[in-house]
């Protein structure tokens, strides 16, 4: 859940090529013209994004949208405003204000990382592990929207889930999502996982994190929508490994014997990150994503450090 755009007349109405624009506009015309503009702006899924925006404006489902024949002028005007924002590079998730993750709705917007499908691999694996523990204690580091930790809390009501987030902007969304999902077994903590002490967090069964992992010099080359997301949630230091080192050196000792650490990885990072946990007494393996990239590191605490 990524970008570019040029050569689009941003001020043109989506209805200009459709008849009766001053009264009711055929929805098929609006959908066709809007999808063409999104395509010209190099949006990857123009038809889908067009329909997401229309459903948002019309407060309807995709099925209901397909059964509609016309659109009212006020609704069309509202849609065109959102369309222009998207053409200008604002992420569609920010425009909609909410995005699904593992079947749950999460509020998103300026200042917080957008939940992504590949992160669901980590969340689903965490749920599998937590279900096998009687009263699991879970820690979500760099929690952002809370999509990982709150999903675990929602699915495992007997778990106690601590979510740590540094950014004030992201923490606002984290609190809002906790309230909307009614996850009373989640404890939110604002702080810096690199420097702060967290005496209120006990030894745990699971540490989860999708930390910032993009090398600093790669940020300018990111898609323009990604560049609208907070750099704090993207940049992992000079080599992209800053937060992995901190988790291995500072946080791994919080894991109980037999506990597990699950970390999302950037492409090609498994070979650099796995030794950090081997030397801390963990057995490690990788979980691939649908494209075959080693997307999640799973580290099992076996208490005996391994020699490399």
Description:
Helices cover 35% and strands 19% of the residues. Helix 7 (147-155) links the parallel strand 5 and strand 6. The protein has 308 residues and is of the alpha/beta class. The strands form 3 sheets. A 7-stranded mixed sheet has the order 7-6-5-8-9-11-10, sandwiched between helices. It has a two-stranded antiparallel sheet with strand order 1-2.
How are the elements arranged and paired?
Elements: E1 25-26, H1 27-40, H2 46-58, H3 62-67, E2 70-71, H4 73-87, H5 92-96, E3 98-101, E4 104-107, H6 119-130, E5 137-141, H7 147-155, E6 160-165, H8 168-181, E7 186-190, E8 204-209, H9 242-251, E9 255-264, H10 270-278, E10 282-288, E11 294-301
Parallel strand pairs: 5-6, 5-8, 6-7, 8-9
Antiparallel strand pairs: 1-2, 3-4, 9-11, 10-11
The first-level CATH class name of the largest domain: Alpha Beta
In the CATH classification, which architecture of the largest domain applies? Answer: 3-Layer(aba) Sandwich
The span between the termini is 37 Å
Q: Order of strands in the sheet with the most strands?
A: 7-6-5-8-9-11-10
- Series of H and E elements: EHHHEHHEEHEHEHEEHEHEE
Rg measurement, Å: 22 Å
Quick take:
The protein is an alpha/beta fold and about 300 residues long.
Name some characteristics of this structure.
single chain, 308 residues, Helicase, Ruva Protein, domain 3, Rossmann fold, 2 domains, seven-stranded mixed sheet, 35% helix
């Amino acid at each position: 859940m990524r970008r570019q755009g040029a050569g689009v007349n941003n001020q043109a109405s989506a209805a200009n090529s459709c008849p009766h624009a001053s009264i009711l506009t055929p929805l098929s015309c609006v959908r066709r013209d809007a999808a063409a503009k999104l395509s010209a702006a190099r949006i990857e899924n123009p038809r889908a994004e067009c329909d997401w925006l229309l459903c948002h404006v019309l407060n309807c489902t995709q099925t209901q949208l397909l059964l509609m024949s016309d659109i009212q002028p006020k609704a069309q005007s509202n849609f065109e405003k959102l369309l222009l924002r998207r053409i200008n590079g604002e992420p569609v998730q920010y425009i909609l204000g909410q995005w699904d993750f593992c079947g749950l709705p999460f509020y998103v917007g300026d200042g917080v990382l957008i939940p992504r499908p590949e992160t669901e691999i980590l969340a689903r694996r965490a749920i599998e592990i937590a279900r096998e523990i009687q009263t699991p204690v879970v820690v979500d580091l760099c929690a952002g929207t809370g999509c990982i930790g709150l999903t675990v809390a929602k699915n495992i009501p007997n778990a106690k889930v601590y979510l740590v987030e540094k950014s004030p902007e992201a923490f606002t969304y984290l609190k809002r999502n906790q309230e909307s999902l009614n996850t009373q077994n989640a404890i939110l903590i604002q702080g810096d996982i690199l420097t702060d002490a967290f005496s209120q967090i006990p030894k745990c069964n699971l540490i989860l994190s999708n930390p910032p992992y993009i090398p600093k010099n790669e940020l300018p080359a990111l898609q323009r929508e990604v560049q609208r997301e907070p750099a704090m949630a993207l940049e992992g230091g000079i080599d992209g490994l800053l937060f992995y080192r901190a988790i291995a050196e500072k946080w791994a000792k919080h894991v109980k014997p037999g506990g597990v650490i699950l970390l999302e990885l950037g492409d090609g990072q498994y070979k650099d990150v796995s030794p950090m946990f081997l030397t801390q007494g963990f057995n490690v393996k990788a979980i691939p994503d649908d494209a075959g990239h080693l997307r999640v590191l799973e580290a099992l605490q076996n208490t005996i450090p391994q020699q490399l």
